[in-house]
Amino acid sequence: MAASVVPGYSPGFKKPPATLRLKRKRPRRSEPAAASAAPSPCGEAPRAPSAPARRNPFSSLDNAPRAAGTPEPRERGRRPSAGGSPSAAPFWQLLEAVGEDRHARRAEPAERTDVLALTHDLHLPVAVPEVPSSPRHEFPADWSIKTRLLFMSSQPFTWAEHLKAQEEAQGFAQHCRATETNLPQSVQEPKLSTELRCAFQQSLVYWLHPSLPWLQLFPRIGADRKIAGKASPWSQDEALQQVLMSDWAVSFTSLYNLLKAKLCPYFYVCTYQFTVLFRAAGLAGSDVITAVISPTTRGLREAMRNEGIEFSLPLVEDSRTRKQKNSEVNLEMEVANSLEVGNSMEEGEEPAPSDEDDDDDSFSWLEEMGVQDKVKKPDAISIKLRKEKHEVQRDHRPESLALVKGTNAFTLLNFLINCKSLVAVAGPQAGLPPTLLSPVAFRGGTMQTLKARSINAKARVDLAYEDVFSLEIVGPVLPHSLHSLTMLLKAAQRGAFSAALYTHEPTAVFNAQLDQASPAFSQETLHKDLLTCGLHPKTLDQLSQCPTLGKSSIRFLEMRDYAYTWKP
Q1: Beta strands in 8-127 (DSSP E)
Q2: Could you tell me if 434 and 220 are in contact, meaning their C-beta atoms sit under 8 angstroms apart?
Q3: Where are the domains of the chain?
Q4: In this predicted model, what pLDDT tens digit does every residue of 104-130 receive, in sequence order?
Q5: What is the pLDDT of residues 474-491, one digit of tens each?
Q6: How far apart are CA 409 and CA 406, in angstroms?
Q7: What's the CA gap between 479 and 487, in Å, rounded?
Q8: Is the pTM above the cut of 0.85?
Q9: What 8-state DSSP symbol labels residue 290?
Q10: Distance of CA 539 to the CA centre of its chain
């Protein structure tokens, strides 16, 4: 019975295996046509040769099958000719070229304590100037807040690892009681020294308010991305915001009272826009309480003036003084030159008109043209803004540093407590009070510790790799903690170590030299009054000196043979 023909049905799909056999017999395009037509030795019909085994792309090049006459991997890895395409080089060869170029650019360290070479091996981008300071027994005070410290040494840091519960508790007790720890110049067995390990725990302690464990409360400037997405129940609750601010005001006042009584050496107020550093009388070469604010804006400065707070802009005044001195020197040179050629000052060029002259005569040309009534002159507000253009341009810059001294610091305290712009009204930090950082305990403060961990790495020394030991400290490292840690490392690492210091940039300007103290300033008297502030006497001596770093901070610190060198 003949099969019925279904319309649209193709009989070619009756036997799919036959189609597969046809495809299997077709030669590959990469094979030569002669190979497909070569007769078999038995006289059979020409047969397509079997396809070569495909190389596993996940296997190494050495294990890949090679046809006869194929050069070895080293021959295939030769660089292509100048006229060839760069993509003709194998991928592994490009990797080797990049590695050779990276090793060629990396300078070999002269000694194992060279922090620049070691940080290259540890993949740490540290820019170190070429000219260091002269070796000294003490480095200058650095009032900036460090976010990270990386100490490096040829001696291990095992003494800073796995503190016992008793050593940790003893370190906390020593901090709360302001116990003074004096170590010998060199500790023979640092890992077995309980006194060293307790002092290390003591140097890591700082005090914080407010304390919200799920939020990173320092730094606050530029921290919106880190805080975004975290729980903030106060952002939409005004009653909760008032409670937080009331509690913050109590802690802030407590810190100022401790500072005034010289029981607290200094503390920081970190807002989302600026940072304030309060220092007790006797620190940084001043005989009165000082407060430095950076960066400031024209609006903040106007609000401070309206509240009756007297302040100065030291960096702006210094630049004006330098310009005035330079202009006087240039004037003297011009006078001398004019006298040499026989010209008098009357025949010389007229002095440049001042801004006040410009304001008075800026519209005189309209009267000369007779159109003074047809052109509308700017009003007083526009003229005032024009005069203050230089003041607005320095906003958010280090030059906007404001200095408050003496009784005005207490007025500043009340101003900050009642300042509505102190807290963000929108964004991730909305309703969050500023962060208070202090080296001593205060009302409402929470004890915190810096995070410390030791890292072992390899560094190239004389074409060989040697062990390099490092200690990393992470957190808001205050000035006293930096000095305390260096004193411990001086004894534990036998007077030889290096350190890379990472600075919170908005606070680097706190190292600027401010107004000098009065002639009746007695350093010894104020030093005795500050002995109960909770700092080690040597740390207190360092912080009492006048700042010398200017607008920069210490980026690299090194000790060799118990002498310091540093690079800003």
Answers
A1: none
A2: yes
A3: 115-204+450-512+547-567, 224-316+393-446
A4: 444 433 443 444 444 444 444 444 444
A5: 999 999 999 999 999 999
A6: 6
A7: 13
A8: no
A9: E
A10: 24
